[in-house]
Amino acid sequence: MSSADWFKNIERAMTDWNKRLAEEIAKSGSPSVSGLNGDIDLTPSEVVYVKDRVKLLHYTPITKSSVRVPLLVVCALVNRYYIVDLERNLSVIRRYLERGIDVYIIDWGDPAPSDRYETIGDEVDYIDAMVDVIRELSGLKKINLHGYCMGGTLSVIYASMHPGKIRNLVVQAAPIDFSTNEGIFNLWARYIDADEIVDTFGNVPASFMNLGFLLVNPVGLMIDKYVKFYEKINDKEHVQNFLRMEKWIFDTPDVPGESYRQFLNDLFKKNLLVKGELVVNDVRVSLKELRAPVLSLVADHDTLIPPSSSVLLNELVSSRVKKIMRHPTGHVGLCVSKNAHKEFWPLVADWIAKNSTRKE
Amino acid sequence: MKDQSFESLYRSWFNLSKTLFPFLSPPKGFPAESQLLDWQSEFEKISKNILGLPPSSLMEIGVVPSVEAYKDYLDLMSSQVELYRHSADIWTKFSTVWAEGTQAAVSRVASETAKSDVDPGKRAYNAWVEELERRFDILLRDEEFTTKLGSFVSSYLEVKRRSDGIMERNCSRMNIPTKSEINGMYKKLHDLEKKVDKLSRTGKS
Q1: What are phi and psi of A271, to 5 degrees?
Q2: Which residue(s) pair with A255 in the sheet?
């Protein structure tokens, strides 16, 4: 094939995609375009506690509770919590509810400019306040904790500082060991001046963070993703989920300045958590203090948080019961891939249920 | 200390103006004569107060801020040039990878045997995406590029800082609370909230 033919083929393919898109839009009222707005199919919940801008949501049970110990889910500060509840068939929350687990989640909300001085210690205090509310509501001394991504790191720090309040810890795709060279953020963090960023911006703007996320894979995230979308534009379910994902990706809150500074300087650059030198609220965090059963969930193809950054946790904690579960997908795929919901999450829910009845 | 010669210079200029521009001395019986004269005398008093200041003070009020502001704007422009230079660095790298990836995809598709079951356009597109993704991944992990990326971010922040600095100075002159003053209040508020939270939690337990 000559290069002239190659360009012709590209042109033909692009014309074809555009033609199909135009046809679909022209149909207006046809199943694939009309009525789809990317609204998130949230599982019903109620706000049971509010502290400043941070809310604690309790999900309405959908089956008879069979697991006595409630579970608190903590997501990253850089994204919205609803990635674990995007759509009923792709909802981690629903998998837990179906198993009879009583589920709570933290909605971090939108930090105001005055929240720029909020540190990791303040985030840990928010988690502590929420944990206390759930302990009071359930009448139990210890509850289960599930942290995702940066929320996983915060959960690990929290569980190490308050081991007496955590029954089981589930850590999903969380950065723990920042010394690895596999993660692109780990490399970039060495050349990014967090102090400059925070001193200039205050809270780190969502648009700034988003640009970083898009740069991780510019071709895949800014070209190929949309081409693949056009290819499946007749598939109503695909289009709806695509729109939901797009909504989530660009619905990013700002990040409290001092938390960002500490995360980049103390964790990404100095790897203090693994070294046992991280200081939070004037307390040195020791992973050895973590004795609760730990389940590490790892996405094999995670390019944001490489598996090597997560799996080290199980070697550093004092827990007698610890397990690593892997799934062949990416960082977000672990939450939203059909396969993960069919094969992976029911097993995670089983582990939580089983370890919630285990004698301590 | 007042500079009398400066005041007398102004006085002679004002008197000359009255002669040259008769409307400054309205004819007797002008309907608004008294109001105009009142205004004129007030104006003279104010002018005298200002112009009676030594020239060094005048420099301080008018000229010095202009010089500082001008310097600020020059610095801002200079940081914008730096930002442009760093963004050009990034853009050049991206364009190179883009061109090389596209060229590699062309060669690859040209050398591959056509498969009847795959649309040639789709095959070409897939090859193009693969080549570009592979090359971008190498570029984004490259130390030289990452350093350039860091410099680009720093130069962007420098532009923002300089622009914020100009705003800070303007707010301060207009007696409007500045960003750094508000940040100071945020810090106090945060510390107070933390203390109250700690106290209430201690009280509960």
Answers
A1: 55, 40
A2: A204
pLDDT of residue A351: 97
pTM, 2 dp = 0.81
**DSSP E strand boundaries for chain A:** 45-51, 54-59, 71-74, 103-107, 143-148, 166-172, 279-280, 283-284, 294-299, 322-327
Is A201's Cβ below 8 Å from some Cβ in B?
A: yes
Asked if A219 lies within 8 A of B129 by C-beta distance, the reply is: yes
pLDDT, one tens digit per residue, over B58-108 is 555 555 567 777 888 889 989 999 999 999 999 999 999 999 999 999 998
Are B161 and A200 in contact (CB < 8 Å)?
A: yes
As a CATH number, domain A45-357 is 3.40.50.1820
- What is the ipTM score, two decimals? 0.79
Radius of gyration of chain A (CA): 21
* CA distances from residue B46 to A122, B7, B53 in whole angstroms, order as listed: 56, 12, 11
Helices (H) and strands (E) in chain B, counts: 7, 0
* B68 CB within 8 Å of a chain A CB: no
pLDDT tens track for A216-266: 889 998 899 888 888 888 888 888 888 888 888 888 899 999 999 999 999
d(CA B63, CA A213): 47
Q: By the CB < 8 Å criterion, does B190 face chain A?
A: yes
Q: Which of B94, B114, B161 sits opposite A1 (nearest CB)?
A: B114
